[in-house]
Write a structure and sequence with these properties.
The protein is an alpha/beta fold. The protein has a single domain, classed as Rossmann fold (3-Layer(aba) Sandwich). Helices cover 41% and strands 14% of the residues. The chain has eight helices and seven strands. Strand 3 and strand 4 form a beta hairpin. The two termini are 16 Å apart.
Length: 197
């Protein structure tokens, strides 16, 4: 088959990347890849706040296995997922959760189209807290600690100013407040016309 078209979806934590990647993959009958699935075999800055304060070089995130997996699929080759060991097959479109967008050259070099989800900070924070409570069984003290850390240290990681390199370099920006089905409709028939790509 011809080379696959790789679609990257970027956005801050809580922007709705995972939900959109899953929905778009289903709509396009596409193979999908998720950044977090490669965490255990990749390296990232130990402290994101310190990393940000020291200049925030996105290429300090070493996700070589993800980059290689994208490359294999882009070239029309099946590949074993390095973590789950499931076989990934190339499809016309490959949809990738790519939170760092074009700022992360290691993966971006294989991605053809970037869609950035622009989500207000309060909504993204609420989604993260909900997710963490559900997945990690946090108690009220844990939630207070998370919110205190956000207010005193980590909020600057998510502001428009800190995300501008990623959002401004995206091919398309969509509204993170919209329902997922409306985002999909906009991507397929509106702002991002992938059907004619």
């Amino acid at each position: 088959m011809n080379n696959s078209i790789i679609i990257g979806v970027s956005g801050i934590s809580g922007s709705g990347k995972t939900t959109l990647v899953k929905a778009l993959s289903q709509q396009l009958q596409a193979t999908s890849l998720f950044w977090d699935d490669f965490d255990a075999i990749s390296t990232s800055p130990d402290d994101y706040v310190i990393w940000f304060d020291q200049g925030g070089n996105h290429n300090e995130f070493n996700y070589q296995a993800l980059a290689e997996t994208i490359q294999y699929l882009k070239n029309g080759c099946s590949v074993s997922h390095p973590v789950s060991k499931t076989t990934l097959t190339p499809t016309k479109y490959i949809v990738v959760d790519a939170p760092l967008g074009k700022a992360h050259h290691q993966t971006a070099q294989y991605i053809d189209i970037f869609i950035h989800i622009d989500t207000p900070l309060d909504i993204a924070l609420a989604r993260r807290v909900q997710r963490d409570i559900k997945n990690e069984s946090l108690n009220s003290h844990d939630v207070i600690d998370i919110l205190n850390n956000y207010l005193t240290q980590s909020r600057k990681l998510f502001t428009e100013e800190s995300m501008c390199l990623i959002s401004n370099s995206a091919n398309y920006v969509i509204d993170g407040i919209e329902k997922t089905e409306d985002q999909i409709k906009r991507i397929l028939t509106g702002t991002v016309n992938l059907c004619n790509t």
